[in-house]
Amino acid sequence: APPGFPGFLNSFSVIVAKKNTVVELECRTSGDPPPEISWYKNSVPIDLTDPRFTKLDDGNLKISNLIEDDEGKYECAATNQKGTRLSSGDNLLVRAKRFRPHFTNIPNPRYVVSPGGRLSLTCTAVGAPVPTVDWYRGTRRLEHEKLDNQPPGTARIMLLDLSESINVTCVAESNMGRIYHDVQVVVKNLPPPPQRIYLIDVSATHARLAFTPSKTDGSTTSTSTTTSSTILKYLIFWIPTEQFDNQTFHTMSNQVMSLLHPSLVVLDSTTRTDG
Prior knowledge:
Elements: E1 7-8, E2 14-18, E3 23-25, E4 29-30, E5 36-41, E6 44-45, E7 53-55, E8 61-63, E9 72-80, E10 83-86, E11 90-95, E12 99-105, E13 110-113, E14 117-128, E15 132-137, E16 140-141, E17 154-162, E18 166-174, E19 177-187, E20 195-202, E21 207-212, E22 221-222, E23 227-228, H1 246-251, E24 265-268
Parallel strand pairs: 2-11, 13-19
Antiparallel strand pairs: 1-4, 3-8, 5-6, 5-9, 7-8, 9-10, 9-11, 12-14, 14-17, 15-16, 15-18, 18-19, 20-21, 21-24, 22-23
Family: Belongs to the protein-tyrosine phosphatase family. Receptor class 2A subfamily.
Subcellular location: Cell membrane; Membrane
Protein name: protein-tyrosine-phosphatase
């Protein structure tokens, strides 16, 4: 965006208010020159001739004597000579009485990540009063993983450098009740290498290998801590002749992997011209 283009200084979230009360929706902006503010409900301009709706001097919107029809998504638009920016909006819920928390945004119940990977999880709940929302691993609240500056009723965590599978739970709680959402994070480990590698034929230009696939080859396995996926190809590493000895041959099983049904696999190497 060009310098001076309108921007927003406040976050937008879910607002829960009771009938017949007053609510003020905030819209703090930046820009040069200072932008003009206009308001929309469900993408329709708000009729400011209605005495219940008032745009304040600072641009905020005040709604008086709330009724259930006031529910909806409220967005503010900031406009100056550089352009117009539309806010993400506040979702206003009008309630006649208090009610239990319920989730409005939850992550999938299961994720699979690679070792050392990262994962962001966001959970949002509403209620009257607005519930507190936190993430737990077992009984431990995930404070260090929690990201700051989230809207009320929202908790977001960032899981870094995952090395083992874990279960985490989003908990939304108020004096009206408590609700849970569980998420399983599975770290996808590498399957075991094949066993008993044999050199069955060798010449100046090629070599043939045979090996027995490991016992878990040929199927996809999953436990509470690991998961393995079917391997689609082999990896064979050439080693210069002067570096090859019996010890090197015995360690090659860690460099060649398979996951196939046959009990014996034979591979032909590609032709080499460098000895």
